[in-house]
Amino acid sequence: MRLLAVTVSLGAALLVMTTAPSYAAGGDAIFKKSCASCHYTDGPAKEKTIADQLAKKGPELFYAGSKFQKAWLAAWLQNPKPIRPMKYNSLTEHNKGDHPKMSAGDAAAVTDFLMGLTSPEVKAGVIKAGSSPQAKQIFGKKMPCTGCHEYLAGGEVHGGKSGPSLVGASKRLNPDWIYAYLANIKVFKPVRDMPDFSGVLSPKDMENVAAYLATFE
Amino acid sequence: MSRFVIIAAMVFGLALSAAGSAQAADAKQVFEFYCAQCHGVNGDGKGINVGKDFATDPRNFTVTADMEKRSDDDIRGVIKDGGPSISKSPLMPPWGATLSAAEVDGLLAHIRQLCKCKGK
Question: Which residue from B30, B33, B90 is facing A144, i.e. has the nearest CB?
């Protein structure tokens, strides 16, 4: 009996030893262990109702590779500064900046995993960062964007707090994703407290605005 | 027979009132999710977005005198098409592509409750 137990555990240990090294190094395994309780990575988007959205503990990441810039992601995972001024899904509590931190090695592995999660909705290499009078007018005057999003002007942070801050968007977001998000918001976030601007902004307006946000310091 | 009718009526009535309060609860949830960020949870116009940079105060829905001037169609219209559709601030977003007609009707009813008023 005892012998059997020893043999079994020895066998199990051997099994773990032979499979462990490559497995532990994989970003997907690290993600499953430390991150998947708050983020899902298998698309398409799952939320159908407000209750579904409010039940989420963190943003969906199934298109992370199309949304983020790789260098930003690897750095942020090691030193995660608040993106949303408010706590996720809250309009009363502020963001405490308590996101889990990763070591440089783990962050690199998870970054590789997340950058592999791309979306067919995002056409790569189309939108180039650049400012235009049209985009400035839309973002700052004609549309309510600044009511919900922070941005930098004259070295100071201005704007509303319910959306993610757009300060530093030029380093964080992929301009092609910004365009796809404005044009087809429901694919990425079917239930969110940002209005769908399709039919309100023309595709050309959206291109201009995406290019403009991609210059945000 | 008469007993059956009474029971049937009671069951039907219960179902009706449950449906009514479910709708009200939905409208409150919809308001809190989409509108409270600017208009405040209580509809007083003091949402989290309203700081020093906010050029035009979001409407305070609890002021009866202001809200009774608006017809139901005006309110539905501004929710769907945004502030500029009634020559108001563009900080009031257009929600037409986001909300269903039923959700807009629910919000209208919720706003009427907040202002304790009817439209002209």
Answer: B90
Contact B103, B30 (CB under 8 A): yes
- What is the DSSP track for B5-32? HHHHHHHHHHHHHHHHHHHHHHHHHHII
What's the domain count of chain B?
A: 1
Give this complex's ipTM: 0.86
- What are B17's two structure tokens? 């009132």
pLDDT tens digit sequence for A61-89: 999 999 999 999 999 999 999 999 999 99
Q: Is B53 near chain A, with CB under 8 Å?
A: yes
Looking at the domain assignment, is residue B105 inside a domain? Answer: yes
Instruction: Looking at the complex, report in whole angstroms how far the Cα of residue A203 sits from the nearest Cα belonging to chain B.
Output: 15
Q: CATH code at B27?
A: 1.10.760.10
Q: Is residue B10 included in any domain, yes or no?
A: no
Distance in angstroms (rounded) separating the CA atoms of residues B90 and B106? 23
Beta bridge partners of A201: A198
CB proximity list for A56: less than 8 A, separation 6 or greater: A38, A47, A88, A89
Provide the whole-model pTM: 0.90
* Host domain of residue B100: 23-115
